[in-house]
Design goal:
Glycerophosphoryl diester phosphodiesterase membrane domain-containing protein; disordered N terminus; 323 residues; single chain; mainly alpha; 71% helix; transmembrane; 13 helices
Protein backbone atom coordinates (compact mmCIF):
# COMPACT_ATOMS: atom_id res chain seq x y z
CA UNK A 1 0.00 0.00 0.00
CA UNK A 2 1.28 3.45 -0.79
CA UNK A 3 2.22 5.62 2.14
CA UNK A 4 0.29 8.52 0.65
CA UNK A 5 3.38 10.70 0.45
CA UNK A 6 5.32 8.89 -2.28
CA UNK A 7 4.49 10.77 -5.42
CA UNK A 8 6.63 8.41 -7.42
CA UNK A 9 4.30 5.53 -6.64
CA UNK A 10 3.15 5.24 -10.26
CA UNK A 11 4.98 4.42 -13.43
CA UNK A 12 6.28 7.95 -13.81
CA UNK A 13 8.07 10.35 -11.55
CA UNK A 14 6.13 13.32 -10.29
CA UNK A 15 8.02 15.59 -12.62
CA UNK A 16 8.23 13.61 -15.83
CA UNK A 17 5.26 12.92 -18.05
CA UNK A 18 4.84 9.46 -19.53
CA UNK A 19 4.66 10.89 -23.01
CA UNK A 20 8.18 12.27 -22.66
CA UNK A 21 10.46 9.28 -21.93
CA UNK A 22 14.06 9.64 -20.96
CA UNK A 23 16.46 9.39 -23.84
CA UNK A 24 19.76 10.53 -25.26
CA UNK A 25 21.17 14.04 -25.29
CA UNK A 26 19.17 15.11 -28.35
CA UNK A 27 15.95 13.80 -26.88
CA UNK A 28 16.70 15.37 -23.52
CA UNK A 29 17.41 18.67 -25.20
CA UNK A 30 14.01 18.46 -26.86
CA UNK A 31 12.45 17.75 -23.46
CA UNK A 32 13.99 20.91 -22.03
CA UNK A 33 12.42 23.03 -24.75
CA UNK A 34 9.12 21.27 -24.10
CA UNK A 35 9.52 21.95 -20.40
CA UNK A 36 11.32 18.70 -19.58
CA UNK A 37 14.01 18.52 -16.93
CA UNK A 38 17.17 16.55 -17.61
CA UNK A 39 19.08 17.09 -14.42
CA UNK A 40 16.98 14.94 -12.12
CA UNK A 41 15.26 18.05 -10.86
CA UNK A 42 12.23 18.06 -13.12
CA UNK A 43 9.34 19.51 -11.22
CA UNK A 44 6.20 18.71 -13.10
CA UNK A 45 4.70 17.10 -16.13
CA UNK A 46 7.20 17.58 -18.85
CA UNK A 47 9.79 18.90 -16.36
CA UNK A 48 11.07 22.45 -16.66
CA UNK A 49 13.85 24.83 -17.39
CA UNK A 50 12.74 26.82 -14.36
CA UNK A 51 15.38 28.21 -12.06
CA UNK A 52 15.05 29.91 -8.66
CA UNK A 53 14.34 33.66 -8.75
CA UNK A 54 17.91 34.40 -7.58
CA UNK A 55 19.22 34.74 -11.12
CA UNK A 56 15.80 34.98 -12.70
CA UNK A 57 14.22 32.15 -14.69
CA UNK A 58 15.38 31.66 -18.26
CA UNK A 59 13.02 33.03 -20.87
CA UNK A 60 11.92 29.61 -22.07
CA UNK A 61 10.91 28.70 -18.49
CA UNK A 62 8.12 31.26 -18.75
CA UNK A 63 7.22 31.08 -22.41
CA UNK A 64 7.69 27.35 -23.08
CA UNK A 65 5.95 24.30 -21.69
CA UNK A 66 2.37 25.54 -21.57
CA UNK A 67 -0.06 22.67 -21.97
CA UNK A 68 0.92 19.20 -23.10
CA UNK A 69 -0.09 17.35 -19.96
CA UNK A 70 -2.37 14.35 -19.75
CA UNK A 71 -6.01 14.97 -20.53
CA UNK A 72 -8.06 15.93 -17.49
CA UNK A 73 -11.84 15.77 -17.82
CA UNK A 74 -14.48 17.48 -15.73
CA UNK A 75 -16.02 14.12 -14.85
CA UNK A 76 -12.71 12.93 -13.38
CA UNK A 77 -12.37 15.99 -11.18
CA UNK A 78 -16.02 15.80 -10.08
CA UNK A 79 -15.66 12.10 -9.22
CA UNK A 80 -12.52 12.85 -7.23
CA UNK A 81 -14.28 15.72 -5.47
CA UNK A 82 -17.05 13.34 -4.39
CA UNK A 83 -14.46 10.92 -3.01
CA UNK A 84 -12.50 13.68 -1.26
CA UNK A 85 -15.64 15.21 0.27
CA UNK A 86 -16.87 11.83 1.49
CA UNK A 87 -13.59 10.95 3.18
CA UNK A 88 -13.13 14.42 4.65
CA UNK A 89 -16.46 14.27 6.52
CA UNK A 90 -14.94 12.82 9.65
CA UNK A 91 -11.75 13.58 11.58
CA UNK A 92 -10.55 16.02 8.90
CA UNK A 93 -13.65 18.24 9.09
CA UNK A 94 -13.61 18.08 12.89
CA UNK A 95 -9.93 19.05 12.92
CA UNK A 96 -10.63 21.93 10.53
CA UNK A 97 -13.37 23.32 12.79
CA UNK A 98 -11.28 22.73 15.92
CA UNK A 99 -8.43 24.84 14.53
CA UNK A 100 -10.89 27.44 13.27
CA UNK A 101 -12.37 27.66 16.77
CA UNK A 102 -9.34 29.75 17.73
CA UNK A 103 -10.65 32.42 15.38
CA UNK A 104 -14.10 32.06 16.91
CA UNK A 105 -12.65 32.88 20.34
CA UNK A 106 -11.40 36.24 19.08
CA UNK A 107 -14.69 36.94 17.33
CA UNK A 108 -16.53 36.29 20.58
CA UNK A 109 -14.15 38.48 22.58
CA UNK A 110 -14.76 41.32 20.15
CA UNK A 111 -18.52 40.77 20.44
CA UNK A 112 -18.33 40.86 24.25
CA UNK A 113 -16.38 44.10 24.10
CA UNK A 114 -19.16 45.52 21.95
CA UNK A 115 -21.74 44.44 24.52
CA UNK A 116 -19.76 46.00 27.38
CA UNK A 117 -19.30 49.21 25.41
CA UNK A 118 -23.06 49.39 24.85
CA UNK A 119 -23.73 49.61 28.58
CA UNK A 120 -20.86 51.97 29.40
CA UNK A 121 -21.53 55.70 29.63
CA UNK A 122 -17.98 56.81 30.33
CA UNK A 123 -16.07 58.24 27.35
CA UNK A 124 -12.77 57.19 28.93
CA UNK A 125 -13.89 53.58 29.36
CA UNK A 126 -15.27 53.51 25.81
CA UNK A 127 -11.94 54.81 24.54
CA UNK A 128 -10.07 52.14 26.48
CA UNK A 129 -12.38 49.48 25.07
CA UNK A 130 -11.70 50.85 21.59
CA UNK A 131 -7.93 50.54 22.10
CA UNK A 132 -8.29 47.00 23.46
CA UNK A 133 -10.49 46.12 20.50
CA UNK A 134 -7.87 47.46 18.07
CA UNK A 135 -5.07 45.46 19.72
CA UNK A 136 -7.31 42.41 19.77
CA UNK A 137 -7.92 42.86 16.04
CA UNK A 138 -4.19 42.89 15.28
CA UNK A 139 -3.60 39.76 17.34
CA UNK A 140 -6.64 38.14 15.75
CA UNK A 141 -5.19 38.82 12.28
CA UNK A 142 -1.93 37.04 13.14
CA UNK A 143 -3.80 34.16 14.74
CA UNK A 144 -6.11 33.90 11.73
CA UNK A 145 -3.13 33.61 9.37
CA UNK A 146 -1.58 30.90 11.54
CA UNK A 147 -4.88 29.02 11.88
CA UNK A 148 -5.51 29.25 8.14
CA UNK A 149 -2.03 27.93 7.40
CA UNK A 150 -2.54 24.99 9.77
CA UNK A 151 -5.87 24.26 8.13
CA UNK A 152 -4.33 24.17 4.65
CA UNK A 153 -1.49 22.06 6.03
CA UNK A 154 -4.25 19.48 6.39
CA UNK A 155 -3.60 18.73 2.73
CA UNK A 156 -1.15 16.20 4.17
CA UNK A 157 -3.55 14.17 6.34
CA UNK A 158 -6.34 14.45 3.77
CA UNK A 159 -3.91 13.22 1.12
CA UNK A 160 -3.28 10.12 3.23
CA UNK A 161 -7.00 9.60 3.75
CA UNK A 162 -7.59 9.78 -0.01
CA UNK A 163 -4.71 7.54 -1.09
CA UNK A 164 -4.52 5.15 1.87
CA UNK A 165 -8.11 4.84 3.05
CA UNK A 166 -10.61 6.61 5.26
CA UNK A 167 -9.60 4.84 8.48
CA UNK A 168 -6.09 6.28 8.74
CA UNK A 169 -6.97 8.63 11.62
CA UNK A 170 -9.02 7.84 14.68
CA UNK A 171 -9.78 11.42 15.65
CA UNK A 172 -9.23 15.12 14.88
CA UNK A 173 -6.10 15.39 17.06
CA UNK A 174 -4.38 12.81 14.87
CA UNK A 175 -5.14 15.01 11.86
CA UNK A 176 -3.86 18.15 13.58
CA UNK A 177 -0.65 16.44 14.70
CA UNK A 178 -0.04 15.26 11.13
CA UNK A 179 -0.63 18.79 9.81
CA UNK A 180 1.96 20.29 12.15
CA UNK A 181 4.76 18.87 9.97
CA UNK A 182 4.30 21.14 6.92
CA UNK A 183 2.89 24.04 8.96
CA UNK A 184 6.00 26.26 8.75
CA UNK A 185 6.35 25.68 5.00
CA UNK A 186 2.69 26.59 4.47
CA UNK A 187 3.11 29.79 6.50
CA UNK A 188 6.14 30.81 4.45
CA UNK A 189 4.36 30.08 1.17
CA UNK A 190 1.18 31.86 2.26
CA UNK A 191 3.05 35.01 3.28
CA UNK A 192 5.35 34.96 0.24
CA UNK A 193 2.60 34.37 -2.32
CA UNK A 194 0.35 36.98 -0.70
CA UNK A 195 3.20 39.51 -0.70
CA UNK A 196 4.15 38.79 -4.32
CA UNK A 197 0.50 38.89 -5.38
CA UNK A 198 0.05 42.25 -3.67
CA UNK A 199 3.25 43.59 -5.21
CA UNK A 200 2.26 42.39 -8.66
CA UNK A 201 -1.28 43.66 -8.30
CA UNK A 202 -0.01 47.07 -7.17
CA UNK A 203 2.10 47.41 -10.32
CA UNK A 204 -0.49 45.91 -12.60
CA UNK A 205 -3.25 43.45 -11.84
CA UNK A 206 -2.09 40.89 -14.41
CA UNK A 207 1.31 40.07 -12.80
CA UNK A 208 -0.40 39.56 -9.46
CA UNK A 209 -2.93 37.18 -10.96
CA UNK A 210 -0.18 35.32 -12.81
CA UNK A 211 1.79 34.84 -9.58
CA UNK A 212 -1.28 33.60 -7.73
CA UNK A 213 -2.03 31.21 -10.59
CA UNK A 214 1.36 29.57 -11.11
CA UNK A 215 2.07 29.14 -7.40
CA UNK A 216 -1.44 28.09 -6.35
CA UNK A 217 -0.42 24.42 -6.09
CA UNK A 218 2.65 25.10 -3.91
CA UNK A 219 0.92 24.60 -0.51
CA UNK A 220 -0.47 21.24 -1.64
CA UNK A 221 2.95 20.11 -2.88
CA UNK A 222 4.76 21.33 0.24
CA UNK A 223 2.30 19.54 2.50
CA UNK A 224 2.02 16.23 0.66
CA UNK A 225 5.61 15.94 -0.60
CA UNK A 226 7.41 17.27 2.50
CA UNK A 227 9.57 19.57 0.40
CA UNK A 228 10.80 23.06 1.22
CA UNK A 229 8.83 26.13 0.05
CA UNK A 230 11.19 26.95 -2.83
CA UNK A 231 10.99 23.42 -4.21
CA UNK A 232 7.22 23.43 -3.85
CA UNK A 233 7.02 26.75 -5.71
CA UNK A 234 9.16 25.36 -8.56
CA UNK A 235 7.00 22.27 -8.94
CA UNK A 236 3.82 24.30 -8.79
CA UNK A 237 5.19 26.65 -11.45
CA UNK A 238 5.72 23.83 -13.93
CA UNK A 239 2.68 21.73 -13.10
CA UNK A 240 0.35 24.70 -13.43
CA UNK A 241 1.94 25.59 -16.77
CA UNK A 242 1.54 22.03 -18.00
CA UNK A 243 -2.07 21.75 -16.80
CA UNK A 244 -2.91 25.41 -17.19
CA UNK A 245 -6.37 24.84 -18.65
CA UNK A 246 -7.92 22.66 -15.88
CA UNK A 247 -6.21 24.74 -13.19
CA UNK A 248 -7.47 27.98 -14.72
CA UNK A 249 -10.99 26.59 -15.06
CA UNK A 250 -10.92 25.40 -11.45
CA UNK A 251 -9.70 28.76 -10.19
CA UNK A 252 -12.37 30.53 -12.23
CA UNK A 253 -15.00 28.20 -10.79
CA UNK A 254 -13.69 28.86 -7.28
CA UNK A 255 -13.90 32.62 -7.83
CA UNK A 256 -17.54 32.26 -8.89
CA UNK A 257 -18.30 29.86 -6.04
CA UNK A 258 -16.50 32.19 -3.63
CA UNK A 259 -18.60 35.14 -4.78
CA UNK A 260 -21.80 33.17 -4.24
CA UNK A 261 -20.48 31.89 -0.90
CA UNK A 262 -19.72 35.45 0.20
CA UNK A 263 -23.23 36.49 -0.72
CA UNK A 264 -24.62 33.48 1.13
CA UNK A 265 -22.54 34.17 4.22
CA UNK A 266 -23.47 37.84 4.15
CA UNK A 267 -27.16 37.16 3.57
CA UNK A 268 -27.29 34.41 6.19
CA UNK A 269 -25.55 36.58 8.75
CA UNK A 270 -27.87 39.50 7.94
CA UNK A 271 -30.99 37.33 8.32
CA UNK A 272 -29.76 35.91 11.63
CA UNK A 273 -28.87 39.40 12.81
CA UNK A 274 -32.26 40.74 11.80
CA UNK A 275 -34.06 37.85 13.49
CA UNK A 276 -32.11 38.36 16.70
CA UNK A 277 -32.11 42.17 16.63
CA UNK A 278 -34.55 42.29 19.51
CA UNK A 279 -31.75 40.80 21.65
CA UNK A 280 -29.30 43.60 20.80
CA UNK A 281 -26.54 43.99 21.90
CA UNK A 282 -26.43 40.31 22.92
CA UNK A 283 -27.24 39.40 19.33
CA UNK A 284 -23.63 40.40 18.50
CA UNK A 285 -22.52 37.05 19.94
CA UNK A 286 -25.03 35.15 17.79
CA UNK A 287 -24.00 37.03 14.66
CA UNK A 288 -20.30 36.41 15.34
CA UNK A 289 -20.91 32.68 15.79
CA UNK A 290 -23.05 32.31 12.66
CA UNK A 291 -20.61 34.31 10.53
CA UNK A 292 -17.70 32.18 11.75
CA UNK A 293 -19.49 28.91 10.99
CA UNK A 294 -20.57 29.94 7.48
CA UNK A 295 -17.08 31.23 6.69
CA UNK A 296 -15.35 28.09 7.95
CA UNK A 297 -17.62 25.82 5.92
CA UNK A 298 -17.09 27.93 2.79
CA UNK A 299 -13.29 27.79 3.21
CA UNK A 300 -13.47 24.05 3.82
CA UNK A 301 -15.34 23.67 0.54
CA UNK A 302 -12.61 25.59 -1.30
CA UNK A 303 -10.02 23.38 0.40
CA UNK A 304 -11.79 20.24 -0.87
CA UNK A 305 -11.96 21.55 -4.44
CA UNK A 306 -8.21 22.24 -4.37
CA UNK A 307 -7.58 18.76 -3.04
CA UNK A 308 -9.76 17.17 -5.72
CA UNK A 309 -8.07 18.98 -8.60
CA UNK A 310 -4.48 18.67 -7.42
CA UNK A 311 -4.82 15.02 -6.41
CA UNK A 312 -6.32 14.30 -9.84
CA UNK A 313 -3.26 15.88 -11.47
CA UNK A 314 -1.09 13.78 -9.18
CA UNK A 315 -2.84 10.64 -10.37
CA UNK A 316 -2.32 11.71 -13.97
CA UNK A 317 1.38 12.22 -13.37
CA UNK A 318 2.17 9.17 -11.26
CA UNK A 319 -0.57 6.68 -12.05
CA UNK A 320 -1.33 6.39 -8.33
CA UNK A 321 -5.02 5.89 -7.61
CA UNK A 322 -6.98 6.44 -4.38
CA UNK A 323 -7.27 3.45 -2.08
Amino acid sequence: MSNGNDWNGGNNDWGQSSNQPAGGPEQNQQMVHQGGGTDGGSYGAGGSGFEPPGGGPPLDAVTEGWGGGHEVTLDEVVDRLKLVANRAMGPVLKAWLAVGAVILVFNMLDAFLGIINYFVDSVAVSGAIGIVSMILGIVALVVSIAAGALQFAMFKPLHRVVFEGEHVYSGPMDVINEAKGPFVAIVILTVAITFLFGLGAACCLVPGLFIAFVFSQAPYIAATQDVDPMEAAKRSFVLNKTYWMPVLIAIGALVIIGAFASCFVGAGTFVVGLASSFLYPFSLVIIAGVYWLFTQLAMFGIFLVHMALFSTLETKETGKEPA
